[in-house]
Fold these 3 entries.
Entry 1:
Amino acid sequence: MAVSFHEPRREQPAPATLPSDPKPTTTSQDRAQRRVEKISGMSSERERPDASASDSTKSGSDSPDATESGSKPSGSADSDAAARTGDRYSVEPEDTRRSPALIATAVALPVVLIVVVLAIAVFARQHPTREPLALGSVPQPQATGQVCTTLLPALPSSLGGYTKADLAQPAPPGTVGWQLPDGGDPIVLRCGLDRPAEFVQSAALQVINGVNWFEVRDPTSGVTSGTWYVVDRGTYIAVTMPDKAGPTPLQDISNAVSKVLPARPIDPAPIPH
């Protein structure tokens, strides 16, 4: 017969229970005491502004950021700020931009200059500067007489395309000149001359607007001008002009002569034998 042995059952010991910390008991008296202390502390801070300022200064000086910013020069800070602003608002330089107005001005300016030059050239051509007309002296015994002093102011200022010219001084008395705008051979009137040697009784006369004219010309000389004499106004008036002037100058002078000077009988020299 087998006998079985059973080990007696051991019971596990119960875990030890630690005593829990008792919660502090806050009474109304303790809370009132804390409020009083808090209010007292705030009052002390108001009464000591220097202390607060020194504390804040101290804390600012103790801060690494404050130390770094304080040690950095203000000029460098301004430069950095200006650089950041310049980078932010940088624009393209004005000289690299070409506005339409600038392009139009650049195109129009040469055109305007050309027009001005052409206008000056045209004006200079229409109103050229002429040198004073230099005339030589010839015998004019009656140049200061009544006939000449009456006639000269009545003469026209222009004869066709010829305009009255200034005479170089000293100018001979009783003399007037006309020239083309660009100069050239002039038309010259001389008043108070002696009777020309060629004016004889057989001389041919030409009447222009009521005035008797006598022409003196040497056909063998090949000259392109001639001299015409007024022979019926009591004194002799000579007009020397180029052939290209045409008939207008004699016609205009004849009108002035017949208007201010009365006609007189002609007095030619006898025909030589």
Note: The chain has a mean pLDDT of 76.
Entry 2:
Amino acid sequence: MDKRGHGRHTGEMEASLATGPRSPATAKAGPPSGPEAAAPAALPAPELSVVVPAFNERENLVPLFAELRQALAAVGLSYEIVAVDDGSRDGTAEWLVREGRRDPSVVPVLLAANRGQSAALAAGLRRARGAVIVTLDADLQNDPADLPRLLAALEGADVVSGVRQERQDDWRRRLSSRIANAVRRRVLGDTITDIGCSFKAYRREALDGVPLFVGAHRFLPALCLFRGARVTEVPLAHRPRRHGVSKYGVANRLGRGLYDLIGVRWLRSRMLDYREKPPAERD
């Protein structure tokens, strides 16, 4: 889903939030407040948040949301769909805003400019309120019907990473992905088979405190693993792209991934690793 191009750290990016309360500094003036003016009740946190970054994916949004809602209904959990527009120019942002007004479970997040997949994902994770967080690209190449399989695997894990089966990409993309995964596993020592698969599930606590940076979307399950999270994998369906064009090629998939690998290797060597004793072990 990336640009793609280099973005900036989450703390530096500018994002306009299409729904939800605004800060007093940015909110437009409204009716006078007083004792009789009740504050709007905050919605309870859902059990599940689905974070969907999107860049120029307008044609995919209607079928994506239809399939995603069907999968969410089958799961039976309360949910929100945090849809992040990464500076699209094809009407993606406008569609998400309309959908958010129509359906309160849709939370549009609009970035002020195209900052890349890592920034869009970070913005979505920041807004997600669920105890379980699922990430999914908007290109429809992953099948939302696999959501129950992801969540079932999370019962015994902290992170579930999908592995695309019978990939519907050309040989160049498959080859570059295979090389990048093999090199990353060799350099970092992680066990993730297909880190490029965007369809993943996380317990909220597995993501708490994970450092986010340009390129982090490529390494998120590995970063959780390095911090002691239980990571498992499940095979998932993969489909050809229906609409739009891929934002990745061999250069930005392989070349930039290897460049980021240097930084992640350093980061792993400097990561803190500690846990507090549970109350039962304190005596």
Note: The domain at 44-171+192-245 is CATH 3.90.550.10 (Spore Coat Polysaccharide Biosynthesis Protein SpsA; Chain A).
Entry 3:
Amino acid sequence: MEFLKKYLDQAKKLYESYRKKWGLKFVIASIMVGIILLYLIIFILSPMTGRNISSFFKYHIYDALHNETSYLFDAGVKYEESGFHYFAIGSFKRALRFKGDMYSVNPQDLYQLESLYNLGVLYYKEEKDYPRSMHYFSKYLEIFPKNVENPHKDDIYNVINYILSLDDKTRNVEAKKMKNVANQYYFKGDYEKAIEHYLKAIALDPGYVEVYNNLGTAYLQMNDFKNAVKYWKITLMFDPNDIDLYINLALAYHEKIKDYSRALEYYEKFMEKAPQNDGRMALVRERIEALKKQVGGK
């Protein structure tokens, strides 16, 4: 270490002497030599790593200099093609205007819609994070314009069917144990511990539909309506005929989140799917009429 310190001190003195002698020309020359050395390193490392490192630097600068969704989406695609999945995820999230855990999507912005889909694909294929993948897929399906043919719908449902088909008996036994422990915490009112164990159950068995539903209910008990809605929507992707979920989502949007348009949407979906003798029909019908006046009056 002492030798290295002396060497660096001598190098610094030499640099300063040349800088004083040649001035700005020496500084510019130093920068140019640094750039050339950087590209030589990139040229050597690219074939060794099997990744296009020059593309990484190119699109990292490209990504940083632009803020339009089209540029950010294109940078994400290039990162993904070059094998830099972490940076691809970052660019796609920037296209969705992430602030913390919150983001906003314009259904008319094709680049934002494709960013949502690509995030689902990356978390599914590369990260193996199935719950997060399902979150982005469910959001994509939810906001995709209904009057336009969806190019990815079949692919998404193929992913869902694959996750549901995962049936390792040993893993499912462990997942059931985790779910039972989580249920015990839930009924004791320890919702944080319940959520912790529900998440462990999903990690063991990503196709465990019941646990996604339970997670939504546990988050509801903690007044975390964003996560409650998130996991109920994932449950709906697995089981779109569960009418109780439509009521849960409608009530969350209506009474807690105050998103009346979305509440109206889920009340109407409940009316479409529920049997005519369901005792909640009359109340839901009243709420639909009231919300139509409220939303229409804005």
Note: The chain has three domains: 16-49, 53-165, 169-296.
